[in-house]
Amino acid sequence: MGRVTVRRPVRRISATGDRRRPDALAAEEPLELRVGGRALAVTMRTPGHDVELAHGFLLSEGVIGGRADVAVARYCDGVDEQGRNTYNVLDIALADGVPPPDTGVERNFYTTSSCGVCGKAALDAVKLRTRFSPASAAFAVKSSTLAGLPDALRARQKVFASTGGLHAAALFTPDGSLDVVREDVGRHNAVDKVLGWAVLEGRIPAPGHGLLVSGRASFELVQKAAMAGIGLLAAVSAPSSLAVELAEENGMTLIGFLRGDSMNLYTGDHRILT
């Protein structure tokens, strides 16, 4: 497995002086996802929880609906210049009867750590229809509980604390418990990892969870939540216009600017208890 952080020398200039010291950087490496030996996507990610990432990705793309749809996940041979396995190629074998992804899911060469939909080969494949309607999710949470979530998330961002360079995502319960937290250089990868955790734990659909993200709420992240049957997405930063439209269309609750005791409720405010 690749390293989560990398140490590099840096020259630091500040008001107190000029000195050189080692600095911790968040690792970023490519991961090639294959299904049945066929290359599907290459994403730039922080190594770790790759099997979760693959399951979450396939769930959010509509390829699988749960753990039973995957027979096995295994790393393929991929070596660096020293002949060591890079663990950067992961092959997923689907269970019998599960159709392989159609061509619309294939990515043009790679997806960057900041964008997961911009590489899609077909524009009409961007908007997906979920098999688990989030509109029926009877999830409700107090506004005071939501207010404490960003600090709880930050407290569990161990790699962010040392590098300052990672996004985070979490699945939380109505009482504010964070059931799982994952970090990654790509915000979409962090979400795929927590969704993949839910797949492997047999918790999909997940109407009893909310999704919390450390950055902004994009169209893609709303779509990923909808594909998992999650009815509430909370972000510490701003949503995009398409994110709000998609959340409204799917009967979801979308919260932005969740900071301290304030937040903006863009859609689905019936799930917020004051």
Automatic annotation (TrEMBL):
Keywords from the named record: Cytoplasm, Molybdenum cofactor biosynthesis
Residues forming the catalytic site: C115 (cysteine persulfide intermediate)
Repeat as UniProt keyword: no
Top-level taxon of the source organism: Bacteria
UniProt-listed InterPro entries: Cytidine_deaminase-like, FdhD
Location relative to the cell: Cytoplasm
Function summary: Required for formate dehydrogenase (FDH) activity. Acts as a sulfur carrier protein that transfers sulfur from IscS to the molybdenum cofactor prior to its insertion into FDH.
Family: Belongs to the FdhD family.
Protein name in UniProt: Sulfur carrier protein FdhD
Name of the coding gene: fdhD
